[in-house]
Amino acid sequence: VVWVVTAAIVVKVSNTPFVFLSDERVIRPLLHAALVLMGINTLLVLYLAIYLPKIKGIQDSSGWDVYCPRVVPSMAIFGVVAAILLIRSTWPVWGFLAPLILGTEALGALFFLHFLPWLP
After folding, report:
1. Which residues contact 103 (CB under 8 A, 6 or more apart)?
2. Of 2, 26, 32, 34, whose CB neighbour count within 10 A is largest?
3. Which string of DSSP letters, residue by residue, matches 37-76?
4. DSSP state, residue 23
């Protein structure tokens, strides 16, 4: 709960949606590259979490190493590069606070997932 509330306060104070959507100081090509990498990561998560278990019938995550061994390391690399690009793209706006702001918002988004209901 603490990270989610802290992230909501940081979003409100730093005006993150406005910064991403219309601040002219943001380096747009880097922001777009980061968003593309995050989109690729999202598709790979959906592949591992929905396609493999439901369509291919691979229920155990240990099967990922056999069926698609390069997906998880690729996701890690894409995530690190996306984080670096996102920090660099917002550096002109927030300066040294960019990693703290984005890190707090990322942790808040991660822990927010605990509040989503999941069906068995």
Report:
1. none
2. 34
3. HHHHHHHHHHIIIIIIIIII---SGGGHHHH-TTHHHHHH
4. -
**Tokens at residue 6, please?**
């802290």
Q: How many residues does the chain have?
A: 120
* pTM of the entire predicted model: 0.88
Would you state the structure tokens that stand for residue 26, as one six-digit string?
């943001």
Measure the CA–CA gap between 118 and 114, rounded to whole angstroms: 9
Summarised one tens digit per residue, pLDDT across range 52-96 is 999 988 888 888 888 889 999 999 999 999 999 999 999 999 999
**Which residue is listed with tokens 């996102």?**
86
C-alpha closest to that of 37 among 84, 94, 88, 97: 84
Amino acid type, 108: G
Cβ atoms of 93 and 23 within 8 Å: the answer is yes
Alpha carbons 41 and 46: distance in angstroms, whole number: 9
Contact 71, 48 (CB under 8 A): yes
What's the token pair of residue 27?
A: 């380096």
